[in-house]
Amino acid sequence: MNIIKINENNTIDNVINNLLQRTPNYYDDYANQVQTIINNVKDNKDEAIISYTEKFDKVKLTKDTLKVTPSEIKEAYELVDDELLRIVRRAKDNIESFHQKQKKYSWFDSTTNGTLLGQKISAISWAGVYVPGGKAVYPSSVLMNVIPAIVAGVEHIIMTTPPDKEGKINPLTLVVANECGITDIYKVGGAQAIAALAYGTETIPKVDKIVGPGNIYVALAKKAVYGHVNIDSIAGPSEILIIADETANPTYIAADLLSQAEHDELASSILVTDSEDMAHKVLEEVKRLTGELSRKEILEKSLKNYGYIIVVNSLEEAVDVSNEIAPEHLEVVTKDPFMLMTKIKNAGAIFLGEYSPEPLGDYMAGPNHVLPTNGTAKFFSPLGVDDFIKKSSIISYSKEALGELQEDIIKFADSEQLTAHAKSIKVRFEND
Question: Which reaction(s) does its UniProt entry say it catalyses (predicted)?
Answer without folding.
Answer: L-histidinol + 2 NAD(+) + H2O = L-histidine + 2 NADH + 3 H(+)
